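Retro notes (design track)

What went well: tokenization of the new backbones is finally stable.
What didn't: we kept losing track of which sequence belonged to which structure.
Fix going forward: every design gets posted as structure first, then sequence, in one message. First example under the new rule, 224 residues:
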């Protein structure tokens, strides 16, 4: 390979690495701060897709009749998008016991498979048991993040987690965890970040994802 071709190849490699390293936007409960939208509503999920968000987070429960419902509170109708491309970041809320959580995970995995959405799904939970069940039952390579903030990067790696999805304050207290995660080939997500100065701090730290109620603000910062 001559010098010119080598330099072009290096430039392409650097550009590729930069693209991979750029922080991505996850809309918290969809892009709901727009007319006609509501938190976790189908319109909010569609609008998150329309503005170019990497993903859209939404909350799921297993109801008493063993049907899955989506909302921040344990009532509503289950809805999914089939035409859009935004990743669907499904948060399973903690249930009253581990048996119910296992049942919920089984129902979710089966439903996602029926709908042909396996490649678009990512899973998060405050429940360590539910997190482990997603790791165990979801197709290999499916991203699964833990929300509770009480496990170190090493502990998350040991259970097979994709990485932490922790509240901003956890990383303010333990900023070294971001690098530790990357050294362990794990991803880092941070919630729920709505202030521009906090977004800028996390972008400088090269976190992989930021979950926000202000996706437009974050998208604009990333364009600078």
């Amino acid at each position: 390979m001559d010098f010119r071709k080598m330099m072009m190849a290096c430039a392409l490699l650097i550009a590729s690495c930069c693209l991979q390293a750029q922080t991505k936007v996850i809309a918290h409960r969809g892009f709901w701060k727009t007319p006609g939208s509501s938190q976790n509503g189908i319109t909010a999920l569609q609008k998150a897709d329309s503005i170019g968000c990497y993903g859209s987070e939404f909350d799921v429960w297993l109801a008493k009749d063993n049907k899955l419902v989506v909302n921040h509170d344990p009532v509503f109708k289950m809805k999914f998008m089939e035409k859009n491309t935004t990743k669907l970041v499904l948060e399973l809320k903690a249930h009253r016991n581990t048996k119910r959580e296992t049942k919920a995970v089984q129902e979710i995995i089966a439903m996602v498979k029926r709908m042909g959405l396996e490649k678009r799904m990512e899973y998060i939970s405050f429940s360590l048991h539910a997190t482990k069940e997603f790791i165990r039952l979801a197709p290999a390579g499916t991203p699964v993040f833990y929300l509770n903030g009480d496990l170190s990067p090493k502990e998350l790696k040991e259970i097979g987690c994709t990485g932490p999805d922790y509240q901003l304050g956890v990383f303010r207290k333990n900023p070294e965890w971001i690098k530790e995660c990357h050294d362990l080939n794990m991803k880092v997500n941070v919630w729920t970040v709505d202030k521009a100065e906090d977004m800028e701090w996390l972008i400088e730290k090269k976190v992989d994802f930021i979950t926000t109620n202000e996706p437009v603000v974050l998208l604009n910062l990333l364009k600078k």
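Added context from the reviewer: The mean pLDDT is 86.
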